[in-house]
């Protein structure tokens, strides 16, 4: 991105702001001061530090804007944005409460900031990642230098090097290799010990054995001035395995930090109305029953409760899949996650924590997850079968040579070690992580965020795809139907509609974006909009009954509608529906052409679902599904031996997402659904579903090829090693060659062209850059 | 061949210098924000800006 000039930064900022305003975030919706005190850390010198996750950072310009704005505040010593993780570290002297002012300043600039506890959040993870990197650096240094010395030894063999020189080189190798093994081998030794203590065996057991035995044997050979030293094999092995481990850890860490961001951003601040009329802002998870909370128009209601004041329209499409907003008066029950559309309401909290609808959904989700057979990663499954075989072969070689071959135990042990070294699972340790990293990087570029390490493997053999309707197959927001209404009528209606955040009004305003909004438009919650001109004539836009349009043309449309009534003119009707994503039909057809069964499960009413499934050519559909029913259907499919991909966005889909073999969710989905899903995709199109499946299929094929390659190497090398023909030279060459071959094979994926050609048609070449902002805009704007 | 006695230690010492430099850069957090660093080089901290940050 080359938008680092202040001008563009301002533009990005104002876009973010207008996005927020369009999303209904009226100025009063921004909390006055957020209480961040619990997150502020103070050192003995009176310096406060605060860590924030910032949403909406797109480019270097944003970084500069934020750092300058905070730097200009009094007492601030440093403000530093990490653009990779979108986190901000700010340090200041003075009052602790200044932190709240900083969050507010960021809010004014258009960036939403959420404090987090850096100790708790993934710090452990990055520490381990650094540990691995350090171990890798040491192993790499040792491997390069020992290999240099070994090459001299091998060349010396041919040119008649003196034994004394060879021993000297061996001693140098020992000096480098042994400390490196002790330092860089710790991750493997630790894991192997843990496994052995639990009376299990994992891949790290043969690795540790091979490295330790090779090191020990080589040392004893060196002491006895023998020819066989395996120092180079031991450290090269460590280096390659650490590389694989590091890639794996990084892919997982990225996935986890994405999930954590989602979780942290969910816990937004709530405005609480105290008994004495003052307002206080607190985190949603500290609410108590009986408290009164304010929900401005355009805000999501933060807790289950009952409306005590205000009349508004509520959009519960994320909860139920229902497209139409419904009116709510004082006394009506509301649920956390509902979007408040037209007017501010005061809600008395009736349930928190365990008793809310959200927790009910989470419970359903968790039980579904528990019932689902735990997926074991392919590499782990291979390792379980592989480790005992390797041990048995090495033991057999040792015993065979000692008992049957009549060999002394030292050379026999050397042969056993050679077997362990050549069978060492570089393919398992390196090939799978390499494929994973390349695939997730590739998908990330196309706006698909993989959240689970095993998602690709599970996606690779999907044979059934289940879709949700609202927000998944459809855009999840009403659009004005192609209407034959007079353009002048449309302009007049759009002008009024521009003053409201109601989804129907916004759809109208989108249809005629340049219509000027008149002053003094009044919004009647649950009814519509009214505007009085200078002569006192009232123009009304709203419900049929409210605008007195009974005389107008009869309605044959079952979807939402708005009526425009002007003094002295016949009322005009505008109809809306929730349009399909532009490529929904194409994607469904492509999936069916691949022989996959496609199912539609929706919480919406039957006529609507029937119409959509008819338009898409889907025979298998079910309407008015409760979350439990969706789970039941999915479990029935899974029990029938099908591998099911669930694509859904609503809160009501979250349990089903957890029950499916693997799940996808659009970035506009409810937070909890994004948390439950294995991958999240961006954009207005459905094509990423196809792309993900295609990439996963290719990744699966590559991983299997890699295993095949590694197996072929072993078939050749193991008999040689058992027969005692493998010298340190052959062991080192075979091992490195097989590692390089599988890595090279994995890298092919990075070169391959996209199969679906989606990239060319993608509206936004780098959607993830705007991930946070897009998420908020879509999430709140529905 | 006796030249090896000091050539190898020199080679190792140079290698160790490289390793130490890498470990130092890792420790000082130079790999924490690879994306941001690419943009930061383009910021120009002009005079006004510095005055803003540290008055006096």
From TrEMBL, chain A:
Residues 756-782 are annotated as: Disordered. It comes from the Bacteria. Gene3D superfamilies: 3.30.70.100, Calcium-transporting ATPase, cytoplasmic domain N, Calcium-transporting ATPase, cytoplasmic transduction domain A, HAD superfamily/HAD-like. Pfam families: E1-E2_ATPase, HMA, Hydrolase. Keywords: ATP-binding, Cell membrane, Ion transport, Magnesium, Membrane, Metal-binding, Nucleotide-binding, Phosphoprotein, Translocase, Transmembrane, Transmembrane helix, Transport. It is found in: Cell membrane. Signal peptide: none annotated. PANTHER family: ATP7, ISOFORM B, CATION-TRANSPORTING P-TYPE ATPASE-RELATED. Belongs to the cation transport ATPase (P-type) (TC 3.A.3) family. Type IB subfamily. This is Heavy metal translocating P-type ATPase.
Automatic annotation (TrEMBL), chain B:
The keyword Ribonucleoprotein does not apply. Coiled coil: none annotated. Keywords: Membrane, Transmembrane, Transmembrane helix. The keyword Cell inner membrane does not apply. Pfam families: FixS. The chain crosses the membrane at residues 6-26. InterPro entries: Cyt_oxidase_maturation_cbb3 (IPR004714). This is Cbb3-type cytochrome oxidase assembly protein CcoS. The lineage of its organism: Bacteria, Pseudomonadati, Pseudomonadota, Alphaproteobacteria, Rhodospirillales.
């Amino acid at each position: 991105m080359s938008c680092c000039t202040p001008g563009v930064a301002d533009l990005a900022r104002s876009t973010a702001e207008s996005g927020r305003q369009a999303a209904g975030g009226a100025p009063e919706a921004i909390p006055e001061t957020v209480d961040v005190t619990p997150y502020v850390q103070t050192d003995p010198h009176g310096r406060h530090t605060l860590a924030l996750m910032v949403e909406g950072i797109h480019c270097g310009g944003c970084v500069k804007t934020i750092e300058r704005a905070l730097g200009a505040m009094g007492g601030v010593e440093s403000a530093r944005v990490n653009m990779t993780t979108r986190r901000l570290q700010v340090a200041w002297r003075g009052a602790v409460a200044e932190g709240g002012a900083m969050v507010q300043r960021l809010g004014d600039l258009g960036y939403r900031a959420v404090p987090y506890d850096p100790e708790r959040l993934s710090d452990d993870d990055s520490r381990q990642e650094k540990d691995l990197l350090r171990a890798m650096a040491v192993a790499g240094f040792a491997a390069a230098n020992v290999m240099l010395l070994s090459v001299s030894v091998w060349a010396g063999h041919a040119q008649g090097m003196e034994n004394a020189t060879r021993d000297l080189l061996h001693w140098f190798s020992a000096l480098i290799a042994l400390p490196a093994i002790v330092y860089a081998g710790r991750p493997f030794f630790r894991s192997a010990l843990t496994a052995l203590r639990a009376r299990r065996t994992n891949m790290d057991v043969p690795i540790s054995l091979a490295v330790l035995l090779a090191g020990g044997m080589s040392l004893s050979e060196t002491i006895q001035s023998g020819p066989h030293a395996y120092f180079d094999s031991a450290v090269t092995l460590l280096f390659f395995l650490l590389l694989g481990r590091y890639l794996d850890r990084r892919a997982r860490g990225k996935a986890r930090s994405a999930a954590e961001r989602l979780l942290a951003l969910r816990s937004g601040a709530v405005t609480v109305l105290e008994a004495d009329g003052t307002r206080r802002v607190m985190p949603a998870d500290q609410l108590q029953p009986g408290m009164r909370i304010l929900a401005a128009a355009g805000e999501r209601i933060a807790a289950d409760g009952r409306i005590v004041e205000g009349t508004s329209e509520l959009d519960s499409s994320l909860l139920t899949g229902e497209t139409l907003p419904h009116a709510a008066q004082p006394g009506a029950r509301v649920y956390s996650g509902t979007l408040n559309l037209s007017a501010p309401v005061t809600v008395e909290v009736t349930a928190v924590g365990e008793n809310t609808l959200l927790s009910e959904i989470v419970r359903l989700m968790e039980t579904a997850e528990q019932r689902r057979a735990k997926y074991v990663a392919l590499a782990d499954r291979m390792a379980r079968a592989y480790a005992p075989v390797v041990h048995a072969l090495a033991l057999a070689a040792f015993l065979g040579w000692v008992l049957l071959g009549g060999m002394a135990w030292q050379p026999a042990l050397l042969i056993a070690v050679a077997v362990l070294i050549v069978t060492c699972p570089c393919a398992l340790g390196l090939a799978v992580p390499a494929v994973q990293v390349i695939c997730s990087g590739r998908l990330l570029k196309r706006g698909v965020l993989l959240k689970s390490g095993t998602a690709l493997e599970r996606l690779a053999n999907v044979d059934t795809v289940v879709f949700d309707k609202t927000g998944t197959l459809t855009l999840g927001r009403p659009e004005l139907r192609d209407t034959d209404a007079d353009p002048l009528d449309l302009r007049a209606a759009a002008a009024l509609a521009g003053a409201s955040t109601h989804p129907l009004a916004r759809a109208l305003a989108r249809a005629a974006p340049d219509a000027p909004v008149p002053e003094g438009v009044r919004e009647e919650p649950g009814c519509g909009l009214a505007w009085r001109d200078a002569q006192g004539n009232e123009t009304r836009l709203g419900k049929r009954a409210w605008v007195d349009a009974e005389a107008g043309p009869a309605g044959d449309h079952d979807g939402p509608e708005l009526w425009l009534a002007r003094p002295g003119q016949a009322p005009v009707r505008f109809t809306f529906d929730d349009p399909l994503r532009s490529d929904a039909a194409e994607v469904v057809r492509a999936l069916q052409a691949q022989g996959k069964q496609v199912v539609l499960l929706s919480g919406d009413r039957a006529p609507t679902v029937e119409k959509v499934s008819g338009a898409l050519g889907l025979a298998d559909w079910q309407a008015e599904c409760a979350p439990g029913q969706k789970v039941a259907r999915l479990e029935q499919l899974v029990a029938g031996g099908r591998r099911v991909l669930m694509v859904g966005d609503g809160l009501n889909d979250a349990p089903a997402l957890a029950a499916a073999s693997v799940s996808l969710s659009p970035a506009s989905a409810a937070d909890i659904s994004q948390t439950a899903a294995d991958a999240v995709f961006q954009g207005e199109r459905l094509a990423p579903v196809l792309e993900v499946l295609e990439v996963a299929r290719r990744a699966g094929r590559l991983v299997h090829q890699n295993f095949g390659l590694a197996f072929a190497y072993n078939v050749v090398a193991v008999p040689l090693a058992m027969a005692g023909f493998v010298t340190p030279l052959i062991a080192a060459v075979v091992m490195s060659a097989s590692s390089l071959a599988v890595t090279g094979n994995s890298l092919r994926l990075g070169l391959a062209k996209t199969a679906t050609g989606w990239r060319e048609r993608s509206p936004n070449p780098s959607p993830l850059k705007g991930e946070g902002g897009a998420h908020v805009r879509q999430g709140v704007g529905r | 061949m006796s030249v090896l006695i000091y050539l190898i230690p020199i080679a190792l010492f140079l290698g160790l210098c490289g390793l130490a430099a890498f470990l130092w850069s890792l420790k000082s957090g130079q790999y924490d924000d690879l994306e941001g660093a690419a943009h930061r080089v383009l910021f120009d901290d002009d005079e006004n800006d510095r005055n803003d940050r540290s008055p006096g």
